Amino acid sequence: MRIRITRTPSGTSPEEVRQGWVGIILEYTTKVKARQMTDHDILIGRKKEAGYMVDAVTALQALERHNPKAYEWWINRYPNADFGNFVFTTNECEEVSQ
């Protein structure tokens, strides 16, 4: 199944970087009803929210095609990071048909 990012995701990156996700369509791996908080989630003030888990590498590749400046920010900021997965909440995206 796939999702389309429809609203600027929450997070600590600059607003223009987060806005770069809007409009991207991504395959999601898991639909999360009430995701478990990680240390990073706690640091950025996220609450438990339903959402969609996506592979971070695939998501960043889509971001590179959709908004190269936003992608560049991620790569420059975290050049050696292994993000694993990203979660976009249900109020930030919508399911789309294949």
Structure description:
The structure is a single chain. Helix 3 crosses helix 4. The protein has helices at 15-19, 39-43, 56-66, 68-77; strands at 2-5, 25-27, 30-32, 51-55, 85-89, 93-96. The strands form two sheets. The chain has a three-stranded antiparallel beta sheet with strand order 2-1-6. Strands 3-4-5 form a three-stranded antiparallel beta sheet. It contains four helices and six strands; from the N terminus they run E-H-E-E-H-E-H-H-E-E. With 98 residues, the chain is of the alpha+beta class. The chain is 32% helix and 24% strand. The chain has one domain (2-96). It is globular, with a radius of gyration of 13 Å.
Labels describing this entry:
98 residues, alpha+beta, 3-stranded antiparallel β-sheet, 6 strands, 32% helix
Structural category is alpha+beta
Strand content: 15-25%
Characterize the biggest β-sheet. 3 strands, antiparallel
Mean pLDDT: 87
Strands ordered across the widest β-sheet: 2-1-6
Detail the poorly predicted runs: none
Q: From N to C, what is the helix and strand string?
A: EHEEHEHHEE
Number of helices: 4
Helicity, as a percent range: 25-40%
Domain unit count: 1
Number of strands: 6
Choose one word for the global shape: globular
Kindly provide the radius of gyration, computed on alpha-carbon positions and rounded to a whole number of angstroms. 13 Å
Q: State the separation between the terminal residues, measured CA to CA.
A: 7 Å
